[in-house]
Amino acid sequence: MANKLETKYATHATASELTFRGDKNSQVVVKNIDSTSDKAGSVIGIFEKTTGPYTLDGAAASGQAVVPLAATSGLTNGDKVVIRSKTDMTKFEKGVISSISAGVSITLAGNLTYTYASGDEAFEMMTTIASIANGAASKNRGNGQPVAAAAENSPLYAVLDSTSAGDLSMTAEYVPVEGE
């Protein structure tokens, strides 16, 4: 059976961002990157989990910013986090922590798109696994060969910086990791 491939695209004036969910017993491997930036020193940053999963110990409703967590140790204001459902593969999103109530919850800078249940997961996404120079140019990398890979069970987050126009497209493969 073939591994799952997923392609995502983002365009933004100053920061084109993509998030791949990641799954238990698999690894997100970036196989292709197409990027365009108008910034001379632009860089594509690719990140994996630093800590987590943190377990939600209550519901987090769409349209609000508070995410209840059983523990918050290791998290700080400004950290990027990925929240993901354990039961619905389509529900996951990136946020930025704006405040922390120690041992109780985190508050994100923006509201959640989806509703999450107790038992769902959050990951701190601050470990750089690749930093790729792009410059003011259009570039293609990978062409089916691995460019970057996240750890098992880790989401993958990527961002391309630009001055006023940036486009980022990535194709990733979910590669099974053999059990221990």
Folded structure, characterized:
The protein has about 180 residues and is mostly beta strands. It has two domains: about 5-50 and about 125-175, Galactose-binding domain-like (Jelly Rolls, Sandwich), CATH 2.60.120; about 50-125, Elongation Factor Tu (Ef-tu), domain 3, CATH 2.40.30. It contains no helices and 15 strands. It starts with a strand and ends with a strand.
Topology overview:
Elements: E1 4-12, E2 15-20, E3 26-37, E4 43-48, E5 51-55, E6 66-68, E7 80-84, E8 92-101, E9 105-108, E10 121-124, E11 127-133, E12 138-141, E13 148-149, E14 156-161, E15 166-176
Antiparallel strand pairs: 1-15, 2-14, 3-12, 3-13, 3-15, 4-11, 4-14, 5-10, 6-9, 7-8, 7-10, 8-9
What descriptors fit this protein?
mainly beta; Jelly Rolls; 15 strands; 180 residues; 6-stranded antiparallel β-sheet; Elongation Factor Tu (Ef-tu), domain 3; 2 domains
Please summarize what this structure is.
The chain is mainly β. It has no helices and 15 strands.
